[in-house]
Design goal:
This protein is an alpha+beta fold. The chain has five domains: 143 residues, no CATH class; 144 residues, no CATH class; 69 residues, Roll (SH3 type barrels); 85 residues, 2-Layer Sandwich (Alpha-Beta Plaits); 36 residues, no CATH class. Strands 9-8-7-6-10 form a five-stranded antiparallel β-sheet. Strands 11, 12, 13 and 14 form a four-stranded antiparallel β-sheet that branches. A hairpin with a 2-residue loop joins strand 4 and strand 5.
Length: 559
Amino acid sequence: MSTPDKCAKAVGRGVVAVLVVLLSPAVCAQLGSSKTPIPEAQSEQPKDPLGRFTPRKAVLGFLSTVRRGNLETAALYLNTPLRDAEAQTLAQQLAVVLDRRLPARLNEISDEPEGSMPDPLNLDEDLIGTISTSKGDLDILVERVDRGKAGKVWLFSRKTLKSIPEVFDELSTPPVVIFLPQFLVKERLASIPLFEWLAVLGVLLLYVFFGLLSRLIGLGVLACRRYLFQYAGLKNPLVLPPPIRLLLLALSIHWLLSRVGLPLLARQVWSTTAFIMLIVACIWLLVLFNRWGERYLIARHPSLGGSAAVLRLARRGTNGLVFLAGLLFALHHFGINPTATLAGLGVGGIAVALAAQKTLENLIAGISLITDQAVRVGDTLKLGEVLGTVEDVGLRSTRIRTLDRTLVSVPNGQIANMSLETLSARDKFWFHPVVGLRYETTPVQLRSIITGVRKLLTGHSSIDSSTVRVRFLRIGAFSLDVDIFAYVIASDWDDFLTFQEELLFSVMNIVAGVGAEIAFPSRTVYLAAGASDKVVPFVPEFRGKRGIKAHEGEQGVRY
Protein backbone atom coordinates (compact mmCIF):
# COMPACT_ATOMS: atom_id res chain seq x y z
CA MET A 1 0.00 0.00 0.00
CA SER A 2 1.38 3.44 -0.95
CA THR A 3 2.20 6.10 1.61
CA PRO A 4 -0.63 8.47 0.52
CA ASP A 5 -3.16 5.64 0.92
CA LYS A 6 -1.85 4.95 4.40
CA CYS A 7 -2.13 8.65 5.19
CA ALA A 8 -5.68 8.74 3.86
CA LYS A 9 -6.63 5.73 6.01
CA ALA A 10 -4.98 7.33 9.01
CA VAL A 11 -7.01 10.50 8.41
CA GLY A 12 -10.16 8.41 8.19
CA ARG A 13 -9.42 6.59 11.43
CA GLY A 14 -8.63 9.90 13.11
CA VAL A 15 -11.92 11.39 11.95
CA VAL A 16 -13.79 8.35 13.26
CA ALA A 17 -12.06 8.54 16.63
CA VAL A 18 -12.65 12.28 17.07
CA LEU A 19 -16.32 12.08 16.07
CA VAL A 20 -16.94 9.12 18.35
CA VAL A 21 -15.34 10.94 21.29
CA LEU A 22 -17.21 14.17 20.61
CA LEU A 23 -20.57 12.59 19.82
CA SER A 24 -20.62 9.82 22.41
CA PRO A 25 -22.18 12.13 25.06
CA ALA A 26 -25.07 12.79 22.70
CA VAL A 27 -25.60 9.05 22.14
CA CYS A 28 -25.49 8.38 25.85
CA ALA A 29 -28.00 11.14 26.42
CA GLN A 30 -30.37 9.44 23.97
CA LEU A 31 -30.19 6.18 25.89
CA GLY A 32 -31.39 8.02 28.95
CA SER A 33 -30.36 7.90 32.57
CA SER A 34 -31.94 8.83 35.86
CA LYS A 35 -28.62 10.35 36.89
CA THR A 36 -28.84 13.14 34.29
CA PRO A 37 -27.93 16.41 36.07
CA ILE A 38 -30.69 18.97 36.43
CA PRO A 39 -30.06 22.33 34.74
CA GLU A 40 -28.97 25.13 37.06
CA ALA A 41 -32.01 27.16 36.07
CA GLN A 42 -34.21 24.50 37.79
CA SER A 43 -32.23 24.34 41.02
CA GLU A 44 -34.66 26.68 42.79
CA GLN A 45 -37.72 24.71 41.66
CA PRO A 46 -39.04 21.57 43.39
CA LYS A 47 -37.06 18.50 42.42
CA ASP A 48 -38.85 15.70 40.58
CA PRO A 49 -37.34 12.33 41.59
CA LEU A 50 -38.13 10.94 38.10
CA GLY A 51 -36.40 13.79 36.30
CA ARG A 52 -39.40 14.82 34.18
CA PHE A 53 -38.18 18.39 33.75
CA THR A 54 -38.00 18.41 29.93
CA PRO A 55 -39.82 16.52 27.16
CA ARG A 56 -36.69 14.55 26.25
CA LYS A 57 -35.95 13.48 29.84
CA ALA A 58 -39.58 12.44 30.31
CA VAL A 59 -39.59 10.25 27.18
CA LEU A 60 -36.17 8.71 27.85
CA GLY A 61 -37.04 8.13 31.49
CA PHE A 62 -40.26 6.37 30.52
CA LEU A 63 -38.54 4.09 27.99
CA SER A 64 -35.71 3.29 30.39
CA THR A 65 -38.17 2.43 33.18
CA VAL A 66 -40.22 0.13 30.94
CA ARG A 67 -37.03 -1.51 29.71
CA ARG A 68 -36.18 -2.41 33.31
CA GLY A 69 -39.67 -3.87 33.72
CA ASN A 70 -40.83 -1.34 36.35
CA LEU A 71 -44.34 -0.68 35.01
CA GLU A 72 -45.56 0.81 38.29
CA THR A 73 -43.06 3.65 37.97
CA ALA A 74 -43.62 3.90 34.21
CA ALA A 75 -47.31 4.69 34.86
CA LEU A 76 -46.21 7.88 36.63
CA TYR A 77 -45.10 9.28 33.24
CA LEU A 78 -48.72 9.19 31.97
CA ASN A 79 -51.31 11.93 32.40
CA THR A 80 -54.22 9.55 32.86
CA PRO A 81 -56.99 9.07 35.43
CA LEU A 82 -56.36 5.30 35.37
CA ARG A 83 -54.68 3.75 38.37
CA ASP A 84 -52.85 0.57 39.36
CA ALA A 85 -53.17 -2.33 36.89
CA GLU A 86 -55.03 -0.31 34.25
CA ALA A 87 -52.40 2.40 34.27
CA GLN A 88 -49.62 -0.16 34.11
CA THR A 89 -51.31 -1.90 31.16
CA LEU A 90 -51.63 1.44 29.34
CA ALA A 91 -47.96 2.16 30.03
CA GLN A 92 -47.01 -1.24 28.61
CA GLN A 93 -49.12 -0.64 25.49
CA LEU A 94 -47.63 2.84 25.02
CA ALA A 95 -44.09 1.46 25.31
CA VAL A 96 -44.82 -1.23 22.68
CA VAL A 97 -46.37 1.34 20.29
CA LEU A 98 -43.39 3.65 20.68
CA ASP A 99 -40.95 0.77 20.22
CA ARG A 100 -42.64 -0.38 17.00
CA ARG A 101 -43.86 2.82 15.36
CA LEU A 102 -42.12 5.95 16.70
CA PRO A 103 -39.35 7.25 14.38
CA ALA A 104 -35.87 7.06 15.88
CA ARG A 105 -35.41 10.82 16.34
CA LEU A 106 -35.07 11.13 20.07
CA ASN A 107 -32.26 13.65 19.63
CA GLU A 108 -34.73 16.09 18.04
CA ILE A 109 -36.95 16.14 21.14
CA SER A 110 -36.62 19.39 23.06
CA ASP A 111 -34.43 19.30 26.15
CA GLU A 112 -35.62 22.69 27.42
CA PRO A 113 -37.92 22.99 30.46
CA GLU A 114 -40.33 25.06 28.35
CA GLY A 115 -40.25 22.60 25.44
CA SER A 116 -39.91 23.52 21.78
CA MET A 117 -43.24 25.44 21.81
CA PRO A 118 -44.29 24.70 18.19
CA ASP A 119 -47.83 25.96 18.82
CA PRO A 120 -48.07 29.35 20.59
CA LEU A 121 -51.67 28.55 21.56
CA ASN A 122 -50.59 25.39 23.42
CA LEU A 123 -47.40 26.37 25.17
CA ASP A 124 -47.57 23.42 27.55
CA GLU A 125 -47.64 20.81 24.74
CA ASP A 126 -44.71 19.40 22.77
CA LEU A 127 -44.64 17.03 19.81
CA ILE A 128 -42.54 13.89 20.25
CA GLY A 129 -43.21 12.35 16.85
CA THR A 130 -45.87 11.12 14.46
CA ILE A 131 -46.79 7.49 13.86
CA SER A 132 -48.91 5.90 11.12
CA THR A 133 -52.16 4.15 11.99
CA SER A 134 -55.06 2.68 10.05
CA LYS A 135 -57.02 5.92 10.65
CA GLY A 136 -54.21 8.23 9.65
CA ASP A 137 -51.27 9.83 11.40
CA LEU A 138 -51.26 10.09 15.17
CA ASP A 139 -49.24 12.75 16.97
CA ILE A 140 -47.46 11.58 20.10
CA LEU A 141 -47.67 14.52 22.47
CA VAL A 142 -46.41 15.30 25.94
CA GLU A 143 -47.89 18.05 28.08
CA ARG A 144 -46.66 20.05 31.04
CA VAL A 145 -48.73 19.38 34.17
CA ASP A 146 -48.55 21.21 37.47
CA ARG A 147 -48.19 18.67 40.32
CA GLY A 148 -48.37 21.17 43.14
CA LYS A 149 -45.46 20.69 45.50
CA ALA A 150 -43.69 18.48 42.95
CA GLY A 151 -43.70 21.38 40.49
CA LYS A 152 -44.40 21.22 36.76
CA VAL A 153 -43.51 17.97 35.01
CA TRP A 154 -43.88 16.63 31.47
CA LEU A 155 -46.25 13.67 30.99
CA PHE A 156 -47.67 11.85 27.99
CA SER A 157 -50.79 13.72 26.87
CA ARG A 158 -54.29 12.41 27.54
CA LYS A 159 -55.14 13.11 23.92
CA THR A 160 -52.42 10.67 22.81
CA LEU A 161 -53.21 8.04 25.46
CA LYS A 162 -56.84 7.75 24.30
CA SER A 163 -55.71 6.32 20.95
CA ILE A 164 -52.97 4.02 22.26
CA PRO A 165 -55.14 0.89 22.97
CA GLU A 166 -56.59 0.99 19.47
CA VAL A 167 -53.15 1.43 17.86
CA PHE A 168 -51.78 -1.38 20.04
CA ASP A 169 -54.38 -3.78 18.64
CA GLU A 170 -53.18 -3.01 15.10
CA LEU A 171 -49.61 -4.06 15.82
CA SER A 172 -48.29 -7.29 14.39
CA THR A 173 -45.43 -9.49 15.52
CA PRO A 174 -42.09 -7.98 14.44
CA PRO A 175 -39.96 -9.95 11.96
CA VAL A 176 -37.15 -10.48 14.46
CA VAL A 177 -39.49 -12.37 16.76
CA ILE A 178 -40.85 -14.49 13.91
CA PHE A 179 -37.63 -15.53 12.22
CA LEU A 180 -35.12 -15.59 15.09
CA PRO A 181 -34.91 -18.30 17.76
CA GLN A 182 -36.72 -17.35 20.95
CA PHE A 183 -33.65 -17.59 23.16
CA LEU A 184 -31.94 -14.82 21.09
CA VAL A 185 -34.95 -12.57 21.71
CA LYS A 186 -35.61 -13.36 25.38
CA GLU A 187 -32.10 -13.87 26.72
CA ARG A 188 -30.32 -10.66 27.64
CA LEU A 189 -26.72 -9.65 28.22
CA ALA A 190 -26.29 -6.39 30.15
CA SER A 191 -30.08 -5.82 29.74
CA ILE A 192 -29.69 -6.00 25.93
CA PRO A 193 -31.17 -8.93 23.93
CA LEU A 194 -28.65 -11.32 22.41
CA PHE A 195 -29.81 -10.68 18.84
CA GLU A 196 -28.83 -7.00 19.20
CA TRP A 197 -25.29 -8.09 20.13
CA LEU A 198 -25.28 -10.35 17.09
CA ALA A 199 -26.30 -7.35 14.99
CA VAL A 200 -22.94 -5.75 15.83
CA LEU A 201 -21.15 -8.83 14.50
CA GLY A 202 -23.38 -8.75 11.43
CA VAL A 203 -22.39 -5.15 10.67
CA LEU A 204 -18.71 -6.06 10.87
CA LEU A 205 -19.24 -9.02 8.55
CA LEU A 206 -21.12 -6.77 6.14
CA TYR A 207 -18.14 -4.39 5.97
CA VAL A 208 -15.83 -7.36 5.27
CA PHE A 209 -18.24 -8.50 2.57
CA PHE A 210 -18.01 -5.11 0.86
CA GLY A 211 -14.21 -5.45 0.96
CA LEU A 212 -14.34 -8.86 -0.72
CA LEU A 213 -16.82 -7.50 -3.25
CA SER A 214 -14.40 -4.69 -4.06
CA ARG A 215 -11.61 -7.19 -4.71
CA LEU A 216 -13.81 -9.35 -6.96
CA ILE A 217 -14.96 -6.36 -9.01
CA GLY A 218 -11.36 -5.14 -9.21
CA LEU A 219 -10.19 -8.50 -10.55
CA GLY A 220 -12.89 -8.40 -13.22
CA VAL A 221 -11.97 -4.85 -14.26
CA LEU A 222 -8.27 -5.82 -14.31
CA ALA A 223 -8.94 -8.81 -16.55
CA CYS A 224 -10.90 -6.64 -19.00
CA ARG A 225 -8.18 -3.99 -19.10
CA ARG A 226 -5.45 -6.55 -19.71
CA TYR A 227 -7.48 -8.10 -22.50
CA LEU A 228 -8.18 -4.74 -24.15
CA PHE A 229 -4.74 -3.16 -23.76
CA GLN A 230 -2.66 -6.35 -24.04
CA TYR A 231 -0.47 -5.29 -21.14
CA ALA A 232 0.19 -7.60 -18.21
CA GLY A 233 1.77 -4.96 -15.96
CA LEU A 234 -1.50 -3.28 -14.95
CA LYS A 235 -2.34 -3.19 -11.25
CA ASN A 236 -5.55 -4.31 -9.62
CA PRO A 237 -7.73 -1.17 -9.30
CA LEU A 238 -9.39 -0.32 -5.99
CA VAL A 239 -13.05 -0.13 -7.02
CA LEU A 240 -14.54 0.39 -3.56
CA PRO A 241 -12.15 2.35 -1.35
CA PRO A 242 -12.73 2.29 2.42
CA PRO A 243 -14.91 5.45 2.55
CA ILE A 244 -17.18 4.06 -0.17
CA ARG A 245 -17.53 0.81 1.76
CA LEU A 246 -18.31 2.79 4.92
CA LEU A 247 -20.93 4.80 3.03
CA LEU A 248 -22.53 1.60 1.70
CA LEU A 249 -22.55 0.17 5.23
CA ALA A 250 -24.35 3.26 6.59
CA LEU A 251 -26.97 3.06 3.82
CA SER A 252 -27.41 -0.68 4.46
CA ILE A 253 -28.01 -0.08 8.16
CA HIS A 254 -30.56 2.61 7.35
CA TRP A 255 -32.38 0.25 4.97
CA LEU A 256 -32.36 -2.65 7.45
CA LEU A 257 -33.81 -0.46 10.21
CA SER A 258 -36.89 0.13 8.07
CA ARG A 259 -37.32 -3.63 7.51
CA VAL A 260 -36.45 -5.13 10.91
CA GLY A 261 -38.69 -4.40 13.87
CA LEU A 262 -36.11 -3.33 16.47
CA PRO A 263 -37.05 -1.56 19.70
CA LEU A 264 -36.98 2.25 19.68
CA LEU A 265 -33.79 2.64 21.72
CA ALA A 266 -32.00 0.06 19.57
CA ARG A 267 -33.16 1.83 16.42
CA GLN A 268 -31.99 5.13 17.89
CA VAL A 269 -28.52 3.73 18.61
CA TRP A 270 -28.19 2.17 15.15
CA SER A 271 -29.52 5.25 13.37
CA THR A 272 -27.02 7.37 15.30
CA THR A 273 -24.26 4.93 14.36
CA ALA A 274 -25.30 5.05 10.70
CA PHE A 275 -25.37 8.85 10.83
CA ILE A 276 -21.83 9.01 12.26
CA MET A 277 -20.66 6.53 9.60
CA LEU A 278 -22.27 8.70 6.92
CA ILE A 279 -20.50 11.85 8.15
CA VAL A 280 -17.16 10.06 8.44
CA ALA A 281 -17.53 8.55 4.95
CA CYS A 282 -18.39 11.93 3.40
CA ILE A 283 -15.45 13.66 5.13
CA TRP A 284 -13.11 10.84 4.13
CA LEU A 285 -14.27 10.96 0.51
CA LEU A 286 -13.80 14.74 0.30
CA VAL A 287 -10.29 14.39 1.74
CA LEU A 288 -9.45 11.76 -0.90
CA PHE A 289 -10.93 13.87 -3.71
CA ASN A 290 -8.89 16.81 -2.48
CA ARG A 291 -5.68 14.75 -2.58
CA TRP A 292 -6.52 13.34 -6.02
CA GLY A 293 -7.15 16.89 -7.28
CA GLU A 294 -3.72 17.99 -6.04
CA ARG A 295 -2.04 15.05 -7.78
CA TYR A 296 -3.96 15.73 -11.00
CA LEU A 297 -2.91 19.38 -11.10
CA ILE A 298 0.76 18.56 -10.54
CA ALA A 299 0.72 15.71 -13.10
CA ARG A 300 -1.29 17.59 -15.74
CA HIS A 301 0.63 20.86 -15.35
CA PRO A 302 4.30 20.15 -14.58
CA SER A 303 4.96 23.88 -14.39
CA LEU A 304 3.03 23.87 -11.12
CA GLY A 305 5.63 21.60 -9.55
CA GLY A 306 7.24 24.61 -7.85
CA SER A 307 3.86 25.42 -6.29
CA ALA A 308 3.64 22.06 -4.51
CA ALA A 309 4.00 23.74 -1.12
CA VAL A 310 1.10 26.10 -1.81
CA LEU A 311 -1.06 23.28 -3.17
CA ARG A 312 -0.26 21.19 -0.11
CA LEU A 313 -1.19 24.09 2.19
CA ALA A 314 -4.43 24.68 0.27
CA ARG A 315 -5.26 20.97 0.48
CA ARG A 316 -4.69 20.87 4.22
CA GLY A 317 -6.71 24.04 4.73
CA THR A 318 -9.57 22.59 2.70
CA ASN A 319 -9.37 19.36 4.67
CA GLY A 320 -9.63 21.35 7.89
CA LEU A 321 -12.70 23.20 6.62
CA VAL A 322 -14.32 19.94 5.53
CA PHE A 323 -13.68 18.38 8.93
CA LEU A 324 -15.02 21.47 10.73
CA ALA A 325 -18.15 21.52 8.56
CA GLY A 326 -18.79 17.84 9.25
CA LEU A 327 -18.31 18.33 12.98
CA LEU A 328 -20.67 21.35 13.09
CA PHE A 329 -23.29 19.40 11.13
CA ALA A 330 -23.03 16.49 13.56
CA LEU A 331 -23.30 18.78 16.58
CA HIS A 332 -26.35 20.46 15.06
CA HIS A 333 -27.93 17.05 14.44
CA PHE A 334 -27.51 16.12 18.09
CA GLY A 335 -28.89 19.43 19.31
CA ILE A 336 -25.59 20.89 20.55
CA ASN A 337 -25.20 24.62 19.95
CA PRO A 338 -21.57 25.39 19.02
CA THR A 339 -22.04 29.18 18.88
CA ALA A 340 -20.15 29.90 22.10
CA THR A 341 -17.30 27.62 21.11
CA LEU A 342 -17.01 29.24 17.68
CA ALA A 343 -17.00 32.71 19.26
CA GLY A 344 -14.18 31.63 21.59
CA LEU A 345 -12.25 30.20 18.68
CA GLY A 346 -12.70 33.47 16.79
CA VAL A 347 -11.28 35.54 19.64
CA GLY A 348 -8.44 33.05 20.08
CA GLY A 349 -7.75 33.16 16.34
CA ILE A 350 -7.39 36.95 16.44
CA ALA A 351 -4.95 36.68 19.34
CA VAL A 352 -2.89 34.05 17.53
CA ALA A 353 -2.89 36.13 14.34
CA LEU A 354 -1.58 39.17 16.20
CA ALA A 355 1.09 37.11 17.96
CA ALA A 356 2.22 35.44 14.72
CA GLN A 357 2.06 38.57 12.56
CA LYS A 358 5.56 38.16 11.09
CA THR A 359 5.04 34.47 10.45
CA LEU A 360 1.76 35.16 8.65
CA GLU A 361 3.45 37.94 6.67
CA ASN A 362 6.14 35.52 5.48
CA LEU A 363 3.51 32.86 4.77
CA ILE A 364 1.34 35.13 2.64
CA ALA A 365 4.42 36.52 0.86
CA GLY A 366 5.61 32.95 0.17
CA ILE A 367 2.24 32.03 -1.34
CA SER A 368 2.36 35.16 -3.50
CA LEU A 369 5.92 34.44 -4.71
CA ILE A 370 5.11 30.82 -5.55
CA THR A 371 1.78 31.46 -7.28
CA ASP A 372 3.23 34.36 -9.30
CA GLN A 373 6.35 32.25 -10.00
CA ALA A 374 8.49 35.29 -9.24
CA VAL A 375 11.12 32.98 -7.71
CA ARG A 376 11.70 29.44 -8.93
CA VAL A 377 14.16 26.73 -7.99
CA GLY A 378 17.28 26.97 -10.17
CA ASP A 379 16.97 30.70 -10.87
CA THR A 380 20.09 32.83 -10.59
CA LEU A 381 19.08 36.09 -8.97
CA LYS A 382 20.42 39.18 -7.31
CA LEU A 383 18.59 40.18 -4.15
CA GLY A 384 20.15 43.24 -2.58
CA GLU A 385 23.73 42.24 -1.87
CA VAL A 386 22.96 38.52 -2.23
CA LEU A 387 23.83 36.90 -5.57
CA GLY A 388 23.31 33.18 -6.10
CA THR A 389 21.09 30.30 -7.21
CA VAL A 390 17.73 29.46 -5.62
CA GLU A 391 17.76 25.99 -4.07
CA ASP A 392 14.39 25.92 -2.32
CA VAL A 393 11.29 28.13 -2.15
CA GLY A 394 9.38 27.47 1.07
CA LEU A 395 6.29 29.02 2.57
CA ARG A 396 8.31 30.94 5.18
CA SER A 397 11.71 31.56 3.57
CA THR A 398 13.75 31.05 0.39
CA ARG A 399 17.20 29.42 0.43
CA ILE A 400 19.85 30.80 -1.94
CA ARG A 401 23.25 29.22 -2.68
CA THR A 402 25.73 32.08 -3.14
CA LEU A 403 28.84 32.16 -5.35
CA ASP A 404 30.91 31.49 -2.22
CA ARG A 405 28.85 28.26 -1.83
CA THR A 406 27.24 29.50 1.37
CA LEU A 407 23.50 29.02 1.98
CA VAL A 408 21.46 32.12 2.76
CA SER A 409 17.86 31.89 4.02
CA VAL A 410 15.88 35.04 3.24
CA PRO A 411 12.36 35.53 4.74
CA ASN A 412 9.71 35.73 2.04
CA GLY A 413 8.29 38.91 3.52
CA GLN A 414 11.65 40.58 2.95
CA ILE A 415 11.85 39.32 -0.65
CA ALA A 416 8.37 40.68 -1.39
CA ASN A 417 9.48 44.19 -0.35
CA MET A 418 12.83 44.24 -2.19
CA SER A 419 13.89 44.78 -5.80
CA LEU A 420 14.49 41.34 -7.27
CA GLU A 421 16.71 40.86 -10.32
CA THR A 422 16.48 37.41 -11.92
CA LEU A 423 19.60 36.98 -13.99
CA SER A 424 18.70 33.56 -15.38
CA ALA A 425 15.45 34.92 -16.84
CA ARG A 426 17.31 36.83 -19.57
CA ASP A 427 16.25 35.87 -23.10
CA LYS A 428 19.34 37.60 -24.60
CA PHE A 429 22.75 38.60 -23.31
CA TRP A 430 24.25 42.05 -23.77
CA PHE A 431 27.54 42.18 -25.68
CA HIS A 432 28.89 45.71 -25.13
CA PRO A 433 32.67 46.16 -25.23
CA VAL A 434 34.30 49.57 -25.88
CA VAL A 435 37.50 49.18 -27.97
CA GLY A 436 40.15 51.92 -27.56
CA LEU A 437 42.51 52.45 -30.54
CA ARG A 438 45.82 54.32 -30.54
CA TYR A 439 45.93 57.95 -31.69
CA GLU A 440 48.19 56.85 -34.51
CA THR A 441 45.17 55.08 -36.09
CA THR A 442 44.24 56.79 -39.36
CA PRO A 443 40.61 57.53 -40.33
CA VAL A 444 40.84 54.95 -43.13
CA GLN A 445 41.93 52.27 -40.68
CA LEU A 446 39.19 53.33 -38.25
CA ARG A 447 36.49 53.05 -40.93
CA SER A 448 37.79 49.63 -41.95
CA ILE A 449 37.69 48.41 -38.36
CA ILE A 450 34.10 49.65 -37.88
CA THR A 451 32.96 48.04 -41.14
CA GLY A 452 34.68 44.75 -40.34
CA VAL A 453 33.23 44.50 -36.83
CA ARG A 454 29.74 45.36 -38.08
CA LYS A 455 29.97 42.68 -40.78
CA LEU A 456 31.23 40.19 -38.18
CA LEU A 457 28.29 40.78 -35.85
CA THR A 458 25.52 40.88 -38.45
CA GLY A 459 26.75 37.66 -40.02
CA HIS A 460 26.96 35.71 -36.77
CA SER A 461 24.15 33.18 -36.28
CA SER A 462 23.93 33.65 -32.50
CA ILE A 463 23.53 37.46 -32.61
CA ASP A 464 20.29 39.35 -33.11
CA SER A 465 21.25 41.32 -36.22
CA SER A 466 18.55 43.94 -35.61
CA THR A 467 20.32 45.05 -32.42
CA VAL A 468 23.86 45.41 -33.88
CA ARG A 469 25.38 48.87 -33.49
CA VAL A 470 29.09 49.77 -34.13
CA ARG A 471 30.00 53.47 -33.87
CA PHE A 472 33.03 55.72 -33.43
CA LEU A 473 32.03 56.89 -29.98
CA ARG A 474 34.49 59.55 -28.84
CA ILE A 475 38.07 60.86 -28.85
CA GLY A 476 39.21 59.80 -25.43
CA ALA A 477 42.07 60.97 -23.24
CA PHE A 478 44.49 58.46 -24.68
CA SER A 479 42.48 56.48 -27.27
CA LEU A 480 39.96 56.60 -30.07
CA ASP A 481 36.93 54.71 -28.65
CA VAL A 482 34.71 52.46 -30.77
CA ASP A 483 31.39 51.41 -29.15
CA ILE A 484 30.18 47.86 -29.99
CA PHE A 485 26.56 47.00 -29.09
CA ALA A 486 24.67 43.75 -29.77
CA TYR A 487 22.49 41.10 -28.10
CA VAL A 488 23.71 37.50 -28.11
CA ILE A 489 21.18 34.65 -28.11
CA ALA A 490 22.56 32.05 -25.68
CA SER A 491 21.09 29.33 -23.49
CA ASP A 492 22.86 30.36 -20.28
CA TRP A 493 25.68 32.48 -18.91
CA ASP A 494 28.41 29.95 -19.72
CA ASP A 495 27.19 29.73 -23.31
CA PHE A 496 27.30 33.52 -23.59
CA LEU A 497 30.87 33.67 -22.25
CA THR A 498 31.90 31.22 -24.97
CA PHE A 499 30.38 33.43 -27.69
CA GLN A 500 31.86 36.57 -26.13
CA GLU A 501 35.36 35.07 -26.10
CA GLU A 502 35.07 34.14 -29.77
CA LEU A 503 33.83 37.62 -30.72
CA LEU A 504 36.57 39.41 -28.80
CA PHE A 505 39.25 37.36 -30.54
CA SER A 506 37.66 38.19 -33.90
CA VAL A 507 37.64 41.93 -33.07
CA MET A 508 41.32 41.79 -32.15
CA ASN A 509 42.08 40.06 -35.48
CA ILE A 510 40.21 42.80 -37.38
CA VAL A 511 42.17 45.54 -35.59
CA ALA A 512 45.47 43.80 -36.25
CA GLY A 513 44.49 43.10 -39.87
CA VAL A 514 44.32 46.79 -40.78
CA GLY A 515 47.64 47.60 -39.08
CA ALA A 516 46.15 49.36 -36.05
CA GLU A 517 46.79 48.70 -32.36
CA ILE A 518 44.77 48.63 -29.16
CA ALA A 519 45.58 51.73 -27.08
CA PHE A 520 47.14 51.56 -23.67
CA PRO A 521 46.85 54.22 -20.92
CA SER A 522 49.35 57.12 -21.35
CA ARG A 523 49.90 60.69 -20.10
CA THR A 524 51.44 63.80 -21.73
CA VAL A 525 53.01 66.48 -19.48
CA TYR A 526 54.27 69.95 -20.54
CA LEU A 527 57.06 71.63 -18.50
CA ALA A 528 57.63 75.35 -19.10
CA ALA A 529 61.24 76.68 -19.21
CA GLY A 530 62.34 79.29 -16.62
CA ALA A 531 63.93 82.73 -17.12
CA SER A 532 67.41 81.21 -17.23
CA ASP A 533 66.27 79.00 -20.12
CA LYS A 534 67.03 75.99 -18.02
CA VAL A 535 64.85 72.90 -18.32
CA VAL A 536 63.33 71.79 -15.01
CA PRO A 537 64.23 68.18 -14.28
CA PHE A 538 61.20 65.92 -14.66
CA VAL A 539 60.64 62.29 -13.89
CA PRO A 540 57.80 60.85 -16.01
CA GLU A 541 55.02 59.07 -14.16
CA PHE A 542 54.39 56.48 -16.85
CA ARG A 543 56.61 54.61 -19.24
CA GLY A 544 55.20 53.02 -22.33
CA LYS A 545 56.52 49.87 -23.82
CA ARG A 546 58.52 51.95 -26.34
CA GLY A 547 60.09 54.18 -23.68
CA ILE A 548 59.80 57.98 -23.36
CA LYS A 549 59.44 60.28 -26.39
CA ALA A 550 60.73 63.85 -26.09
CA HIS A 551 59.69 66.66 -28.48
CA GLU A 552 61.07 70.17 -28.48
CA GLY A 553 58.59 73.01 -28.74
CA GLU A 554 58.38 76.72 -28.31
CA GLN A 555 56.71 76.54 -24.86
CA GLY A 556 58.65 73.69 -23.36
CA VAL A 557 59.52 70.07 -23.66
CA ARG A 558 56.89 67.38 -24.29
CA TYR A 559 57.40 63.91 -22.88
